[in-house]
Structure formats: structure tokens, C-alpha cells
Amino acid sequence: MTFTIPADLHADLYPLAWLVGTWDGRGSAAYPGEEPVEFGQQVTFAADDRPFLSYSARSWQLDKTGEIVGPWHVEYGFWRPGGDGGLSVVLVQPNGQAEVWLGDVEPAKVEIATDAVVRTVDAENPYTAGHRLYGLVDSQLLWAFDKATERQPMSSYAWARLERQ
Fold it and tell me: With bands split at pLDDT 50, 70 and 90, how would you rate the model's confidence at 39?
């Protein structure tokens, strides 16, 4: 699929232009102490004439045959490039978490790590830190997420392979 940089894309976003659009696909999650999950996912990076991308990710748990069995995860946020290839990302999740991520943008690659994770008193999990890697490989968006909790050091958690829609 051919990708065209949107005409109204703010110049600060050119290093992230390859992300703009909607991506669909599948992934897996496995973490010590948690049941493994197969999931379907849709991720959207949207731009207008301002210097940030809006981001949304929705995931559905799949059964062994690939059928949707229910919602799994959702998050929303904003991706803001900085000078010298830097990037800051703010994400919120309905389970009572908000996160600030900092990292770097390279051609067709983004790597970010948490700078802050805050939780409401009734947040659903003890997540404390994370590391994410996004890359464009053979026209697909691949991502991986490592996380740490109060009981588990940084470990591989989830990954997905998504196609541009």
C-alpha cells in the first residue's frame, strides 16, 4: 500500500509521518503471573495542522480460532516530537493509569520508555514502568512492549503486527 504524507501535516511531524493512519492486526501478550492473551488491535495516529499526533489503540481478546470474545485493552494519547529527534508521549487508560513516555525517533523507528506512571487508588494493575519499540518493517507496523510491576522486573509483555488500512 502506498503512503502519502498528508498535505496539512505540521513540519515537526515529518519524522513521524510514516505512522499516520489506521493500522489493524493481531498480537500476543504473555507475562509472568498472567494468562497469555491473543488479541486483535486497531491503532490510529491522526494529525491536523498542529505539532502532535493524536493516538488511539483498541484491542479485543481472541479465542483459539481467532474469533473476538470481548474487549481487552484501550488507550488514548498524544505524541509530541521535540528537537534533535526526541519524542514525548502522554497516554491514558480507563483502568486508572496515566503515563508519560520519553524517547527517540529514527527513520521508521520509535523507541520510548516511561518517565512517569501514575495510578488512581483503584487502578487495576501494579504496572510501574515500561519500554516500547515501534518500527515499520515490510510496510507493517510492528510494536513490542516490555513492562515492570511492583512484583516483576522489566519483562517482555506484548507485541503486535499491524497492516495499514
Answer: very high
